[in-house]
Amino acid sequence: MKLKFIITFSCILISGWLRAEVELPSIFGDHMVLQRNSNAALWGKADAKTEVSIITSWDDRKYIKESDKNGNWKIELATPNAGGPYSISIKNQGVTIKLKDVLIGEVWVCAGQSNMAMAMKGLKNQPILGANREVAVSTNENIRLFNIGNDISDAPLSDFKGQWKECVPQHVVQFSAVAYYYGKLLNEALDIPVGLITTCRGGTKIEPWISGNTINEFEFIAKNEKEGWYGRKPSSLYNAMVHPMVGYSISGVIWYQGESNMQKPNQYEQLLPGLIRDWRAEWGIGDFGFYYVQIAPFNYGEPGNSAFIRDAMRKVSLQKIPNIGMVS
Length: 328
Description:
Order of helices and strands: HEEEEEEEHHEEHHEHHEHEHE
Number of helices: 9
Mean pLDDT: 91
Largest sheet: 11 strands, mixed
Strand content: 25-35%
Low-confidence stretches: 1-18
Radius of gyration: 22 Å
Shape: globular
Distance between the termini: 82 Å
Helix content: 25-40%
Oligomer: single chain
């Protein structure tokens, strides 16, 4: 009798250990913002060939999908115009996880090099004009922030480091100044929630931000450049800091980069449209908005004249590419 009890109890323990919880990439979590009026994709891992069910609190609708043989699953959620906070319940094998404080509104990816990366706190002897006051009054329950951690990879990754955070002074002071001011303006103009996702790294060229599916189209990228370092190797930043969120429903992208390509403006005139085309193809949700900043007329202390890269950016803005714009 005692032996039978031990065996039964052991089986219960083992079955509990084998029952895996749903795993979600870091882009999904409490405080996140989903794109309004869209079929917002949500994906993750579960036990292989098992049912995953999702219930969204904004309409009490239930979605059901079976995971594949590797446990991967993906479900598209119909989102309303705007609002929140809502919750999303995800169930698999009797285990339920709940995402709380979810908003529906505008989602924008904010990408580039140090121009976009520079935080509201500024740099040594390089303050952001008016930032102290702006940070002090920055609490806003309808703006959410997600900063992707720096990383590089030779192959596309499935996840990155980061989490959705509330818009409060201690988070805003560490967040991209350009992205924050853009999101604040959108929130004020549209009066709906705004989610900002920053993916940026100082000193980087545009080539590392383009996927391997597109980068090989450019024959002028020499072999030695394809064996680069410090995040300058083509596709290395895309693989680590963009690919894991591809498919997350967004309204558009703002881009601030160019100094590191200053010596080859003719190539940049082809690479920037290439990046726009590439990201739109990878996301697969149509020609979302893509707006970029023309770099400033500054003496960058390198060979070459920054006027040439600015002119390349100007020429891109005149190409027949839908839904783009340049800020001068």
